[in-house]
Structures
1.
Amino acid sequence: MAALRGEFGVAGAVRPAVGSGSRRTPSRCLRGHTLAVGGATAGWSHAYGLPTVTCEVCYARPEARDSKATWCLLDPTVQYSAGKAPDLGLVLVTLPPAQRRAGVGRIELRWDRKPVGAVWLAICAPCRRALLTGLRVEPDRRRLGYGTVLVAAALALAAPPDYRWSTTALPDSPEVLAFWATVGGFPGLGSPEPCSDMRVPE
Ligand SMILES: [Zn+2]
Ligand SMILES: [Zn+2]
């Protein structure tokens, strides 16, 4: 994969991980190696301002020492309001619906202030319903895990099973299907179940 350069560094892979310290250390690498057996090294990405994990097994194999040996951990429960988001690094910013309850708002993923992806969603607290209405990652930032982070961020805002989630109908696209298959599915995928408070654009 070609290296992508932002204002301050190279874009690497990122995955959601809740919490801090050893609690959020993943059990497997991006290729499925068990880190407790193969070993892992903790580090820091200055480009993203996030902690990193490197799989020792992947790193020891020169042919495998690509963007998948090391990845960053982003806590999907840490979301900033637009006015309080840090200027640097990879951060989640919540932009609530402007007008009405249960309207469509979004969570943006921003890298050094620049939006690189977003998930659109409607949440109705009284009905305990949540609807994912859109997901987009900038074309030159795909296959890094940004979409996975955005999906985790959406679920963190309205956690199932407390909230009943669904999504709008999926576009007829192999790329979209491949994304959701990689993420491991989503509750109510492609079968929208909005509450009566939601007015969702077609
Ligand atoms: Zn590995
Ligand atoms: Zn409702």
2.
Amino acid sequence: MPDTAIAVLTRDLRVHDNPVLAAAAESARQVVPLFVHDAALAKTGFASAPRTRFLQECLADLDAGLRRRGAALVVREGDLVTEVGRLAEEVDAASVHIAADVSGFAARRERRLTEELGARRRPLTVHGAVHTVLAPGAATPQGNDHFAVFTPYHRRWAEIDHRPLAALPRRFSLPASLPKPSPPGEADTGSTMRGGESQARRRAHQWLQEHSDEYHYGQDRLAAEDGTSRLSPYLHFGCVSARELAAVAADRATVGAEAFVRQLAWRDFHHQVLAARPEAARRDYRPRGDEWRDDEHALRAWQEGRTGIPIVDAGMRQLLTEGWMHNRARLITGSFLTKTLYIDWRAGAVHFLRHLLDGDVANNQMNWQWVAGTGTDTRPNRVLNPLRQAERYDPDGTYVRRWIPELAVLDDPRELHQPWRLGTNMLNSLGYPAPIVDLDAARERFQQHRQRANRGTSSQ
Ligand SMILES: Cc1cc2nc3c(=O)[nH]c(=O)nc-3n(C[C@H](O)[C@H](O)[C@H](O)COP(=O)(O)OP(=O)(O)OC[C@H]3O[C@@H](n4cnc5c(N)ncnc54)[C@H](O)[C@@H]3O)c2cc1C
């Protein structure tokens, strides 16, 4: 057996069910688990302060997990390809392992790494189905390289055997030639969501045990604290494996847990779309001839949660405060930006990526496109009415009261969701703005835009 293998960890920051670590441990006597703070990633504008803090916590926790098993995390900074090449020489690595990923950035990086290590005669193994349950491309429809509609994808996803869980190596050891690094530092910010595999496993275990069976009731209730798992930041950084979560939830065999597994399939679905069409991170997946409005004032009001539509403002303020937003609120605020204000989905996606702890190119960009009707939604012109959504998903106003303290004095949910009904003087005294847009007129305008564009497309 060769002496040394390198496991390059990217956003698979865990020791449980980690095919990259497991394969490296099986292939050599010693394993160097490596994480590189990739300078190129910072230049893409993708790195954000909240996610950088969360990442730091993930690395510290991963290092602790590795130390309990006899190794430690080696952390480097710079160009990932250069750093891996350099370390491979330093430790005379017989093989290098890394997870496949779906963005254009990751694909280019993987190609460069293959060339770099090939030139050094050090084989690279790229593992699929590390970040997702099913590897992108593992399920394809006839004559196409990816599924463009979720329902048939989900059907196939459920039929296919998912990979077995990766064995957890009991002990690792670093090569003696490599000085044991000091643990990565982390700032204690006292934030509500701390990064790391220990937190992720605790949360997953507790939520699956206590709440997943009622998921189908609670998943759209905006005010329910445990209605959804809140595991998304942990899934984004791979502190918990989507494959393992799907297996544990499926074993519960309840309607709620099955609905939860379906959401994991949505996550896979967006990953396989982006893997096949990496340009969809920026370009319309299905162009609709939109001529988006340029309205800085409205965009800023939306970003700051001051549009005068309480359910929209509540979601936007949750994002700014928690670095997370309920999925139903993401749908409402996204529809409001793109279809009511008719502002480009890219402006919304950038803002979300700046603030979300779970900010993820596949899930964020493809969901934004879905909401804007330029993506995979089979009803691209539907406009969510925020007032109906508020009535349905925040019927007693708890969510709005939680995030908009100015309105918390209002007892009647109808007044809370439509405070303009109380008149300008009352709004002024509450210190809450009047709506920045007439909802009915905006819906008409959007539908006219799309009809005009459709006529334009069909006459071309
Ligand atoms: C405009 C918009 C932007 C979004 N941006 C992101 C993003 O950057 N990162 C992100 O992880 N999710 C994103 N989502 C999807 C979804 O809102 C979040 O995954 C979910 O709210 C996370 O909360 P949770 O962990 O409690 O989810 P749960 O309801 O507990 O679901 C479990 C997991 O399934 C996955 N999931 C759930 N819903 C979706 C979905 N619609 N699409 C893809 N995966 C899903 C997530 O990984 C989630 O953690 C976005 C949705 C919209 C409408």
